[in-house]
Amino acid sequence: MLPAAVLLALALRRAAGLDLGLSTKCVAIPTDMAMCHDIGYSEMRLPNLLGHVGLPEVVGKAAAWQRLVSTGCHPHAGIFLCSLFAPVCLDTFIQPCRSMCVAVRDSCAPVLQCQGRPWPGSLDCDRFPADEDTCLASLGKEAKRGLGAFPKPICQTCPAIDELLTRRKVLDIFCIGNFAAKVKLSRKRPAFGAPEYDIDCQVEFINQGSLLPFDARSVIKQWFLINENCTRQLVHAHRPKVYLIVGTTEEMNIVVNQVYHWQKWDYRLTLATQKLKHRKCA
């Protein structure tokens, strides 16, 4: 079933759409384009709306954007990008509306900036049609109100990696933060390698506290993707490492305040997590 935005675009279809020339063709969306697998259709047009002609070029260019979609910076980031990289196979190109571009840009450009990358000129929102034309519509008012319902990870200054001293101090740290999680980080090479590394992140909550989203583990993973510079300091090339992260939720923002290296031989962390179940924080 097509997403609501695509259905809306089809319902509003007009002659203003971009006519396809004889040189275009329909092809299956490659299995390697993970961000375009659940958008409601399985075939795309080539060349696409960014001028990419061959599948290897499309897959290679799209790989650099997969991490941005995975950060959860905007619920329509994947639909917006796939409408350009993998446009639906119809008799006209359906572009994203300017309002959708603006909404995605305003939410996701700060994430790119956090990673040291600007919003690219090729995605300048002025190039896309206004909402009254044939295009993929932006979120409705009800959906927009729902975006702020849960706390979100933000770009922040990297917390230092500290050493723990006593079991009592560990328990005090747990009580100061709103949540605490044991995170295993390792490096793996993606199939198509725009990023230098990809993060294999396993999350085990010790104290979920006020971290309320139904998929809180994904939210923690998003923190590591958004704060790529911090993650780069923690991830090592040849072996996984385990960390304890302690953080707070401040004005619907998720902030990691402290990071500790979880050593297998350090019994203090293990004992403290066991004691936490029976301790009441003041």
UniProtKB/TrEMBL annotation:
Keywords: Developmental protein, Differentiation, Disulfide bond, Secreted, Signal, Wnt signaling pathway. Residues 155-281 form the NTR domain. Residues 21-138 form the FZ domain. Residues 1-17 form the signal peptide. Disulfide bonds join C36-C82, C101-C125. It holds the Pfam family Fz. It is found in: Secreted. GO terms for molecular function: Wnt-protein binding. One of its GO terms (cellular component) is extracellular space. One of its GO terms (biological process) is canonical Wnt signaling pathway. PROSITE patterns: FZ (PS50038), NTR (PS50189). The keyword Disulfide bond applies. Its main location: secreted. InterPro entries: Frizzled/SFRP (IPR015526), Frizzled_dom (IPR020067), Frizzled_dom_sf (IPR036790), Netrin_domain (IPR001134). Belongs to the secreted frizzled-related protein (sFRP) family. This is Secreted frizzled-related protein 2-like. It comes from Podarcis muralis.
